[in-house]
DNA sequence: CATGAATGAGAGTTCATTCAT
DNA sequence: GATGAATGAACTCTCATTCAT
């Protein structure tokens, strides 16, 4: 597959991403993607065999670009609390966003495909986020910003709360206030006064 | 609708439940349910128009029967900590169970149907669970079992963690140990020593 | 499947037969048969899963109706030679007929489906034809019409020649004269003077 | 077309032959052949327009190389009976061979293409085989090996029996014993004692 | 009420064939 | 000459939904 093919594949994945954002995973057909890309029916099959394959590529591309969840938050003289807060605000924005989100499609994809439980991109992201938060909390404890006895447990707790908020946002609905309240609760747990 | 019709409807819903447990929500077709019920294709349409309608009925029946999430745990002389622990154990069992769970189907259903965000059974269950946990914690605080400054916040935190664990179990996979660890973390947050 | 279904199935098989006669086996699609029957696309699938299944049914029906290859030839006072000659004439007509023949389709079907080598309708027909010809020759020998030392071998020889003529008719082409010549040759082998 | 082109064409035909041997004629697509040859899709079209054209070339090449059906059998001091027997043994081997045979593909090809009935390679091969067998029988009669009144008729009979065996091998199945039995029958018809 | 045959829309998939490079 | 990406027609198959009985 030449240079051009790589570009076209990328093009398809980008267009497909929009479709998945729009419709989730299950509802999306090869036809939908063909139409979104404005290519021929057979053309798509030159690059991908099915929607799962395309979605996995979308996820891969996503995780490549988004590896820097924290990098935005980390600036020269930011404190641990600043960084954590920024990260949580970022997550809030993400989880409240109705559109331009792959959240639902991602869940649906993992529901449908029991297989990739191991070496699961989602899991890797979760674990690495826990690690980073843990380091952050440790740093905060060191310089007296945070109070925390079980940094790892707290990091994991934060991530599960975020997961809970995320899925709740997609199902029972969650308001900005509700998210703020949870963020406050988490910060207070670290000994941060408002 | 006569008595007989009510019974048949109930029969359909029960059979359909098995199908949803087995296949989630999206993948299920009217044909699947017709076959599971061993009734005629047209027959099903006399009672339900589509799978969404059937699933909502499944959910309704479910919540009627399961309103007593706590009732099992509450006995005469159980302490607040006992009850909370029993509840959490119950949730653990539920979320680790691969089969006989409507979890996935429920998520899929709410993904597909943006509509029932309001008067959403899931939301009601969530809110009422928060309430009950809050009362429980308050009781625990009163008799010195728990230490807690923000009972409502803590109750909500517990529920979001459970939601996070539940969705994680369906996507990235969660081990029994991981769940135990979270439960311990939550209890320690209430000042409970192991 | 009720009485009506049986009739419709029969109707489909009859229409499909025409299609197979027209186009052989391989070229025929479910769509072709749907169109020939003037039923809906999905309708055909209620009765048959694929063209092989339909063709097998065509063959079965064919063999039911045609079990009496010889019965036409057998009359009260016909001699063995008469009957044999009539049979051979019948075969001649059959193998020279361009249209209304399942020959080609049958060959194609057996090419495609290696499976039914055993309990193969074609084989049964061949074997039973050999048996009948053998009996016929024996009868002819008994009453002095034929001279033959190895009736079974001769019967089989006749059938293989007929098979050879049949496939030749479909591939290299065979004239009426050529068939007559072979028939004469076979009869002379039985000591019959023209 | 240059020297190189001729070679490439030959290469394609040889590779295509393998495909036809493997899959018959009808099932073979241009894509199959492209893949077998490991050339480009468009490249094949520079040489052939469709599978029929390719197959005809395969047949032509085949008949060029195989014109010597008998040449193997004919040695200095072999008797007519020896040669005939060798030829029949050769045919037996051929028709029992499951793989490496173009038989099925050839039949399918002639089924599909009504056209080449005239100037039909198959026919030429058949006719020339009849001629040769006839000469052989005449020679055998001359030196007292065979008894035969109608050499041409007998030669043709032999060829039709072989055709019958060949197609039977492909459809109803034929055992080595069955072939031997037919060969014996044919030889006895020529007055040859076992 | 209940049945289940029938319809037809629509998704998936494969290839023959073309054509710019 | 040669390549292989691209197109689009054609086929298979599945269901939601209707309707005569």
Automatic annotation (TrEMBL), chains A, B, C, D:
Q: Name one GO molecular function term.
A: DNA binding
Give every HTH tetR-type domain span. 6-66
- Which superkingdom? Bacteria
Where DNA binds (residue ranges)? 29-48
List the InterPro entries: DNA-bd_HTH_TetR-type_CS (IPR023772), Homeodomain-like_sf (IPR009057), HTH_TetR (IPR001647), Tet_transcr_reg_TetR-rel_C_sf (IPR036271), YfiR_C (IPR041612)
| Pfam family for this entry, one | TetR_C_17
**Protein name, please?**
TetR/AcrR family transcriptional regulator
């Amino acid at each position: 597959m030449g240079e051009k093919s790589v570009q076209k594949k990328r093009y398809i994945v980008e267009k497909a991403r929009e479709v998945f954002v729009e419709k989730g995973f299950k509802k999306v057909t090869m036809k939908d993607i063909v139409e979104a890309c404005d290519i021929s029916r057979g053309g798509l099959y030159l690059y991908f065999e099915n929607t799962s394959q395309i979605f996995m590529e979308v996820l891969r591309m996503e995780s490549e670009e988004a590896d820097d969840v924290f990098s935005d938050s980390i600036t020269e003289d930011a404190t641990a609390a600043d960084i954590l807060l920024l990260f949580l605000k970022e997550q809030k924005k993400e989880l409240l966003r109705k559109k331009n989100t792959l959240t639902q499609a991602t869940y649906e994809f993992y529901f449908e495909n029991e297989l990739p439980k191991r070496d699961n991109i989602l899991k890797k992201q979760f674990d690495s986020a826990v690690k980073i938060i843990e380091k952050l909390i440790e740093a905060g404890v060191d310089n007296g910003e945070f109070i925390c006895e079980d940094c790892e447990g707290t990091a994991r707790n934060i991530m599960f709360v975020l997961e809970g908020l995320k899925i709740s946002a997609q199902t029972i609905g969650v308001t900005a206030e509700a998210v703020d309240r949870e963020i406050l609760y988490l910060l207070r747990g670290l000994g941060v006064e408002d």
